[in-house]
Write a structure and sequence with these properties.
By secondary structure, the chain is of the alpha+beta class. It has 5 helices and 5 strands.
């Protein structure tokens, strides 16, 4: 009988963790707390700082064998193509995990939005909802 209770407890714990992870999928979060970021992009890894442009830049952190990364890439590329002042850059960190570590990225895909000065605006873990992401970025985009 004790084994049955242990099994039920393990199943309940697994279900709770699964639900919690599912609820976080694709949610927009503000920049990482505790980061004292100034307008100098020197705090960013070189590949990220080089990717910044005159517009809001969506930096997608991906890996080679990540299936959701392909969906994210297609969604963000279309979003950037259809909106002036928005740029998309996909960084594959399969062979450069130190970039993900420096940015505090624990999963792929993760999308981080930066303004032209290198200030982090928001981040999304998982495949973002295009409309919600665009609404969150609207205050940072130049008026059309």
């Amino acid at each position: 009988m004790t084994g049955l209770w242990i099994l039920l407890g393990a199943l309940a714990a697994g279900l709770a963790v699964g639900i919690a992870l599912r609820l976080r999928e694709g949610k927009i979060r503000p920049p990482r707390p505790g980061k004292d970021i100034d307008a100098d992009p020197s705090h960013l890894p070189d590949r990220v700082a080089d990717a910044l442009g005159p517009a809001v830049t969506l930096v997608q952190i991906s890996t080679t064998f990540c299936s959701p990364c392909r969906h994210t890439h297609a969604r963000l590329a279309m979003l950037a193509e259809n909106n002036d002042g928005l740029r998309h850059v996909d960084l594959d960190v399969t062979h450069e995990p130190d970039i993900a570590h420096q940015l505090g990225v624990l999963r792929t895909p993760t999308t981080i939005a930066y303004d032209p000065d290198g200030t982090e605006l928001l981040r999304v873990g998982g495949v973002p909802d295009a409309d919600t992401l665009l609404d969150s970025l609207r205050p940072h985009l130049a008026p059309a």
